[in-house]
Amino acid sequence: MPFKASILTLYPDMFPGHLGLALAGRALERGDWGIEAVQIRDFAEDKHRSVDDTPSGGGAGMVLRPDVLARAIDSIADDGRPRLLMSPRGRPLTQERVRQLAAGEGVVIVCGRFEGVDQRVIDARQLEEVSIGDYILSGGEPAALTLLDAVVRILPGVMGNQLSGVHESFEGGLLEHPQYTRPQVFEGREIPEVLTSGNHAAIEKWRHEQAVKLTRERRPDLLPDQPVTK
Ligand code: SAH
């Protein structure tokens, strides 16, 4: 069974978005993965088809109603796929979680809007809150597309050159080494000599050293075993 994403959203037209293009788009056409966007509003039952209401206790904005959202979630067969809620309060997304998700059957993703989602539906449907970073988006849709982008590109057969997944940032707990390509000289700057030496052992060593150096400078938090000097 290919990986399947079911997205609950008030803006189904945002999907597949950029994932309908390039390598992910070709893989989608081939059926290597699948996506369905479910309109939450279709599960509203009052005559105005309202999906939101004012926050209990007062305050600005609107909150997604738990009953409408629960019906939308329940319309998707519970086949064991993880049910995620895109949320700035969630656990920050990591490449490790992306790999776990890509190894599974797929995902169900709830996209919040307004001030967010009634807490009771998060609890009752055991939604796993996932954040894509410490900033606030206007809705969960771009966050869902970001998560799916990261997952889909590592699904079997999606990336042309499978090897290019191996040395990337985070995969070995390090940021990636700098990359170069022709021309040999760009505005007076040369490609580091070792990279054009043909000495593969030396190239590997240089790349590893560069990766460690960059990670130490920019993301010492990724090097838990190394003493960090501040
Ligand atoms: N009032 C909320 C923010 C609501 S933003 C708060 O302060 O926590 C509206 C919706 O956008 C959220 O329900 C969520 O689905 C999505 N969203 C916003 N920022 C996000 C982030 N950093 N990661 C994932 N989803 C996010």
TrEMBL record:
It comes from the Bacteria. It is found in: Cytoplasm. Residues 4-223 form the tRNA methyltransferase TRMD/TRM10-type domain. SUPFAM superfamilies: alpha/beta knot. The keyword GTP-binding does not apply. InterPro entries: Alpha/beta_knot_MTases, tRNA_m1G_MeTrfase_C_sf, tRNA_m1G_MeTrfase_TrmD, tRNA_m1G_MTases_N, tRNA_MeTrfase_TRMD/TRM10. One of its GO terms (cellular component) is cytosol. It catalyses: guanosine(37) in tRNA + S-adenosyl-L-methionine = N(1)-methylguanosine(37) in tRNA + S-adenosyl-L-homocysteine + H(+). Pfam families: tRNA_m1G_MT (PF01746). S-adenosyl-L-methionine binds at residues 112, 132-137. Keywords: Cytoplasm, Methyltransferase, S-adenosyl-L-methionine, Transferase, tRNA processing. One of its GO terms (molecular function) is tRNA (guanine(37)-N1)-methyltransferase activity. CDD domains: TrmD-like (cd18080). Gene3D superfamilies: 3.40.1280.10, tRNA(m1g37)methyltransferase, domain 2. One of its GO terms (biological process) is tRNA N1-guanine methylation. Its EC number is 2.1.1.228. Belongs to the RNA methyltransferase TrmD family. Specifically methylates guanosine-37 in various tRNAs. PANTHER family: TRNA (GUANINE-N(1)-)-METHYLTRANSFERASE (PTHR46417:SF1). HAMAP family: TrmD. Homodimer. This is tRNA (guanine-N(1)-)-methyltransferase. It comes from Agrobacterium albertimagni AOL15.
